[in-house]
Specification:
heterodimer, A: alpha/beta, six-stranded mixed beta sheet, three-stranded antiparallel beta sheet, 9 helices, 9 strands, 34% helix, B: 12 helices, 85% helix, globular
C-alpha cells in the first residue's frame, strides 16, 4: 500500500483564540500536483507552515511520508511569500541558495563542494547564477523570488510547498517556472498555494479549497456548491469570473 | 601615544579591550541582524541585580553578574519564543527589576558604594588578571559555538521560518544566543560599564553592516572596529584623564556619524 506524501488528520489551529483552521483533513498522494485555493485570510499560509513544522497545530497530526515534520526536514522544500525578508541582511544570492542544504540529516552543517555544485545548477535553472555575489537586498522583487525558488530546489525535496510563487515574477518566468514544476512533478509532489487559478489550470492534478476548513477534490469534482462553501462570498466568485469553471472543465476533461 | 601603553595596567587594559572586542564583534553582529538590541539591553541592566546579590552575600561581583544574567537570559528566551508580541513588555519589566534589585542590595551592604561607579561606567584601567582569564574563556566559547554552528545561526538570523522547516533547532539556538549575549555583556561591563554596554555591542556592527556582504565579514569587521575604538578611546581617557567608558563610546559614536556621512556622500555621488 503506497504511503501518501502528506497526511493531515483533524488539524485545528488558533491565533489568539481565533480559529484559523478547523478540523482540516488532507491526504496528498505521491506525485500529486495540488493547488490550495481560498480567499485572503482563509488559512492557506498557516496550513503550509503546519505541514512544514514551522507552526504547531493545537490539535491533529501531520505526517509527510509517514514522518513528523521534524523528521521529514530534508524532504520538504519551501518557497515562502516574498514579503517578510530582511532586505538589509548581509547575504549573497549564492549563500541564500545554499541554505536549502541545511535539511540534510546526520551530517554536520558545513557545505560540501557537491552542495555548491548543486546550488550553481539550480541558480542557473532560475537564471540567477550571474547574480550569485549580489546582496539579496539589491535585487528586484522578481529576482528575489527566483532566489527563494532556487533555495527550495537545492533541498532536492520530495515534496515542494510554494506560497504564491508567482506573485512578483514576470509572465515569461511564470511560464518557465510552471514548465519546470511540471518536469519536477514526474518525480516529486508539489503543493502550490495561490489565488491565481488561471495560471495553475494546465498543470494541477487536484484542487483543495480552503476556508478555515478544507474541501479536497482529488478527481477535480468541484461543484459550484463546494466553491461556494469555501469562498462563502458569492460575489468573490462572480468577481473572479469564469476562472474557477475553466479550471474545472479542463481538469475534468483531462481526467476522463 | 605609545608611551601611554608602556605601563603594566595599560597593557592589561589593552588586552581586556582586545578580548572583549572578539566576543562582542561576533555577538554584537548577531544581536544587530536578529534585531534583539532591546533584549540585550535588558540582560545588561538586569545583570546589575546579580552584582547587588553578589555584593550582599559577599561573593565575587562578576560571578554574581554572570549567574544572574544567564538566568535572566534564559527567562527572556522562553518569553520571547512563547510570545513575540508581548516580549517587549516583559523584557522592559525585567530590565527595571534587575536594576532596582541591585541598587537596593548595594544600599543594604554598606561600604561598597565606591565600586558602584566602576560597574556603571566601566574601569578598563583596573581589570584584574582573573577577569582577563574569564574573558579569554568566553572568547574561546563564543568562537567554538558560533564557528561550529555558523550556517545554522546564519539561517536562523536570515529566515527563521525556513531554518525551522530545514530542521534547524531554532529554539535551542535562541537560548544559546541569549546565553552568549549575557556573557559578552558582562565582559563589556568591565570595559565601558553597563550603562554604555549596548552602544559598544551594537555600534560597530551597525557600521559594519553598511559595508559587508556576508555575516562573517560583518563579524570580522566588527571585531576590528571594536578593538580600534577601544584603543583610541583608551588613549583619550589616559591623555585627558577622562572616564574610559565614555571616551570609548565617544569614539564609536564619531565613527558611526562618519559612516552615515560617508554613506550619504557615496549615494549622492552614485546617484548623480
Amino acid at each position: 500500500m503506497p504511503v501518501s506524501a502528506i497526511e493531515l488528520h483533524n488539524i485545528s489551529f488558533f491565533y489568539n483564540s481565533d480559529p484559523i483552521l478547523t478540523d482540516v483533513n488532507l491526504s496528498v498522494q505521491e506525485q500529486d500536483f495540488l493547488a490550495i485555493i481560498g480567499p485572503n485570510g482563509s488559512g492557506k499560509t498557516t496550513l503550509l507552515k503546519i505541514i512544514l513544522g514551522i507552526l504547531k497545530p493545537a490539535q491533529g497530526t501531520v505526517r509527510a511520508f509517514g514522518k513528523t515534520p521534524m523528521e521529514a526536514a530534508g524532504l520538504l522544500g519551501y518557497v515562502p511569500q516574498n514579503t517578510g525578508l530582511n532586505k538589509d541582511f548581509p547575504i549573497s544570492v549564492q549563500d541564500v541558495a545554499l541554505m536549502g542544504r541545511l535539511g540534510r540529516r546526520g551530517r554536520d552543517r558545513r557545505y560540501t563542494p557537491d552542495d555548491r555544485a548543486l546550488a550553481r545548477r539550480v541558480l542557473e535553472q532560475v537564471g540567477m547564477w550571474e547574480y550569485r555575489d549580489r546582496p539579496i537586498g539589491k535585487l528586484s522583487g522578481g529576482q528575489r523570488q527566483r532566489v527563494l525558488i532556487a533555495r527550495a530546489l537545492t533541498v532536492e525535496p520530495k515534496i515542494l510547498l510554494m506560497d504564491e510563487p508567482t506573485a512578483s515574477v514576470d509572465a515569461q518566468f511564470q511560464t518557465d517556472l510552471y514548465d519546470l514544476l511540471k518536469e519536477l512533478n514526474t518525480a516529486i509532489t508539489i503543493v502550490v498555494v495561490s489565488h491565481d487559478m488561471s495560471v495553475l489550470s494546465g498543470y494541477i492534478n487536484s484542487v483543495a479549497c480552503l476556508n478555515r476548513t478544507l474541501y479536497h477534490h482529488e478527481s477535480g469534482e468541484i461543484t459550484e456548491e463546494v466553491l461556494h462553501s469555501a469562498y462563502q462570498c458569492p460575489v468573490d466568485l462572480i468577481a473572479h469570473g469564469g476562472v474557477p469553471h475553466r479550471v474545472l472543465r479542463k481538469h475534468d476533461h483531462e481526467d476522463c | 601615544m605609545l608611551d601611554a601603553f608602556q605601563s603594566e595596567f595599560m597593557r592589561n587594559a589593552l588586552l581586556a579591550g582586545l578580548l572583549a572586542s572578539v566576543a562582542c564583534g561576533i555577538i554584537g553582529t548577531l544581536v544587530v541582524v536578529n534585531r534583539i538590541v532591546f533584549i540585550s539591553g535588558g540582560i545588561a541592566h538586569a545583570a546589575y541585580g546579580g552584582i547587588g546579590l553578589a555584593i550582599f552575600f559577599g561573593i565575587a561581583p562578576l560571578a554574581g553578574a554572570v549567574g544572574f544574567a544567564l538566568v535572566i537570559a534564559m527567562i527572556m528566551s522562553a518569553v520571547t519564543l512563547k510570545n513575540k508580541q508581548r516580549a517587549d513588555t516583559v523584557v522592559g519589566v525585567m530590565w527595571a527589576f534587575g536594576m532596582a534589585l541591585g541598587i537596593i542590595l548595594v544600599d543594604l551592604s554598606s561600604g561598597y558604594n565606591v565600586d558602584l561607579m566602576s560597574y556603571l561606567f566601566g574601569s578598563i584601567l583596573a581589570v584584574p588578571r582573573a577577569d582577563i582569564v574569564m574573558m579569554a574563556l568566553v572568547d574561546l566559547g563564543v568562537l567554538v559555538i558560533v564557528g561550529s554552528l555558523y550556517n545554522s545561526f546564519l539561517a536562523m538570523s536570515f529566515d527563521e521560518e525556513f531554518a525551522k522547516a530545514m530542521g534547524v533547532r531554532v529554539a535551542v539556538l535562541y537560548y544559546v544566543l541569549l546565553g552568549m549575549i549575557a556573557l559578552s555583556v558582562i565582559m563589556l561591563i568591565r570595559i565601558v560599564g553597563l550603562v554604555l554596554v549596548i552602544a559598544l555591542l551594537t555600534i560597530p556592527p551597525f557600521i559594519a553592516e553598511k559595508f559587508c556582504r556576508s555575516l562573517k565579514a560583518m563579524m570580522i569587521t566588527s571585531v576590528f572596529l571594536n578593538f580600534f575604538v577601544s584603543l583610541v578611546g583608551l588613549w583619550f581617557s589616559y591623555r585627558f584623564n577622562l572616564t574610559s567608558g565614555a571616551t570609548i563610546i565617544m569614539v564609536a559614536a564619531a565613527f558611526f556619524f562618519a559612516s552615515l556621512v560617508y554613506e550619504r556622500v557615496r549615494n549622492h555621488l552614485g546617484g548623480a
